[in-house]
Design brief:
The protein has 368 residues and is mostly helical. It has one domain: Cytochrome c oxidase-like, subunit I domain (Cytochrome C Oxidase, Chain A), CATH 1.20.210.10. The protein is 75% helix and 0% strand. It is built from 13 helices and no strands. α4 runs antiparallel to α5 and α9 packs antiparallel against α10. It is globular and about 50 Å long.
C-alpha cells in the first residue's frame, strides 16, 4: 500500500482517538460522532474498499468515498441532517458498486459450500457497510423529522456504533483467510456455523438492545462469546504461521475480551440499574473493540503486501495492549493520561504502518 494512503489513514486514526478525549479539554461538546466515524467509517470503510479492489493506491471510487465519508462525519457532528442523509446514500451506492464488481448483486455465495468462509465474511463486510449507511439515513429521517418509530435507545449515537461491525467482519475474513483450506467435515461445518452465528447474532443482539431486553441480550452475548472462542480455537490450530498471525491472534484475544466486558456490563445492569464503575467498563469495552480488535485487522490490511516487516511483533503487540487496556481507559479520567494515550497511540501507529517491509507479498489477498 502506498505511503500516501498510509499517511492519510495514520492522520485519520490518530484524530479519531484524539476526538475521543477532546471533551476533557472542550467541556459541553460531545465529540463521540467524530471519534466513531473517523475510525470506523472513514478509516475502516475506506480500507475495506481498498482491500476489495486489490490496488496499492486509492482508485477514484475509494478516494471519493474517503472524502465523502469525512464530509458525512462532519455533517452528522454539526447536525446538518439533510446533507448527512444524502451523503449516506451516495456512500452506500459507492460501496455497492465495489461489492457488485467483486462479487454479485445478490450474495449467493452465502448459501453455497464452495466459496471459502473468508470470502463470505469479506462480502458480508461490504454488504453490512452499505446497508448500515442506508439504515443510518432512515434513522436520521425518523428521529429528526418523521418520528414514526419511538424507541428510547434508537438514538443516533447508539446506532452509529454499528459502523464498527463491517470492520469486525473484514478482520474475521483475514483470520479465515489465514486458515488451511483442507478442512474436515467437522471444521467446515464449524466455520459455516461461525459465519451465520456472528452475522445473525449481532443483528439480533442490536434489536434486543433497542427493545431493552437485558436477559435476551445476555443470552445472545453468551452465544457470541462461545462463537468467538470457537473461531479463535480453529485459528490457532489451522492458521498459517506467518508474521500477520501475531497481530491477528492478538486481535482475537481483544475480541474475546470485548465479549467478556460486554457480558459483564450486561450482568451489572441486570442487577443494578446504575452500577458503580459501569461507565469505565463501557469505555474499556469500546476501546478494546475499536482500537484493539478492529485496529489489528486494519493494520494487516495496510501492510498485507509488506510482510514480513522489520518490526519486533511481540514488543509492538505488548505496547498495543498497554495503550488500549491501561492508558486509554484511564485517560477518560485523567487529562495527563489522555495526552499520553494519544501520543503513545500515534507512536504505535507510525511504527506498525511505516516500518520497513520486504515487499514480498507474503500475505495474500483472500479475494479470488
Amino acid at each position: 500500500m502506498q505511503r500516501s494512503i498510509k499517511t492519510v489513514i495514520f492522520i485519520t486514526m490518530t484524530a479519531a482517538l484524539l476526538f475521543g478525549f477532546l471533551h476533557l479539554f472542550v467541556p459541553g461538546i460531545n465529540f463521540e460522532r467524530l471519534h466513531i466515524f473517523l475510525f470506523n467509517l472513514c478509516s475502516g470503510g475506506t480500507l475495506i474498499l481498498v482491500y476489495t479492489e486489490k490496488k496499492p493506491s486509492f482508485s477514484i471510487r475509494t478516494g471519493v468515498f474517503f472524502l465523502l465519508s469525512v464530509c458525512y462525519a462532519l455533517s452528522a457532528f454539526f447536525q446538518l441532517y439533510p446533507l448527512a442523509i444524502a451523503l449516506a446514500l451516495v456512500l452506500a451506492a459507492i460501496v455497492e458498486t465495489v461489492r457488485v464488481k467483486a462479487f454479485s448483486f445478490f450474495p449467493v455465495d452465502f448459501f453455497k459450500r464452495s466459496p471459502s468462509t473468508s470470502i463470505k465474511f469479506h462480502q458480508a463486510a461490504l454488504l453490512c457497510l452499505s446497508i448500515g449507511l442506508i439504515i443510518s439515513s432512515l434513522v436520521i429521517l425518523n428521529n429528526e423529522y418523521l418520528r414514526l418509530v419511538s424507541a428510547p435507545k434508537l438514538t443516533l449515537d447508539v446506532f452509529f456504533l454499528g459502523f464498527s461491525f463491517p470492520v469486525s467482519l473484514i478482520t474475521l475474513s483475514l483470520m479465515f483467510g489465514m486458515m488451511e483450506n483442507n478442512d474436515s467435515r467437522t471444521v467446515a461445518a464449524l466455520k459455516e456455523y461461525s459465519f451465520w452465528t456472528v452475522n445473525l447474532g449481532v443483528i439480533v443482539f442490536f434489536l434486543f438492545i433497542l427493545a431493552g431486553l437485558l436477559l435476551a441480550e445476555l443470552l445472545i452475548a453468551l452465544t457470541l462469546f462461545f462463537t468467538v472462542v470457537l473461531v479463535f480455537a480453529i485459528y490457532v490450530k489451522t492458521g498459517a504461521r506467518r508474521q500477520p498471525r501475531g497481530f491477528l491472534t492478538s486481535g482475537s484475544l481483544f475480541l474475546i475480551m470485548t465479549a467478556v466486558t460486554g457480558i459483564a456490563y450486561i450482568l451489572l445492569h441486570y442487577f443494578i440499574p446504575e452500577p458503580p464503575g459501569g461507565k469505565l467498563l463501557l469505555k474499556l469495552h469500546a476501546l478494546i473493540s475499536l482500537y484493539g480488535w478492529n485496529l489489528s485487522g486494519l493494520i494487516v490490511i495496510c501492510r498485507r503486501h509488506d510482510f514480513p516487516i522489520r518490526l519486533n511483533s511481540a514488543r509492538m503487540i505488548l505496547f498495543h495492549w498497554f495503550i488500549v487496556t491501561i492508558i486509554a481507559p484511564l485517560g477518560f479520567y485523567f487529562v495527563g493520561l489522555a495526552v499520553t494515550a494519544v501520543a503513545a497511540y500515534a507512536v504505535f501507529l507510525w511504527m506498525v504502518l511505516f516500518s520497513g517491509g520486504s515487499s514480498s507479498g507474503e500475505f495474500p489477498v483472500t479475494l479470488q
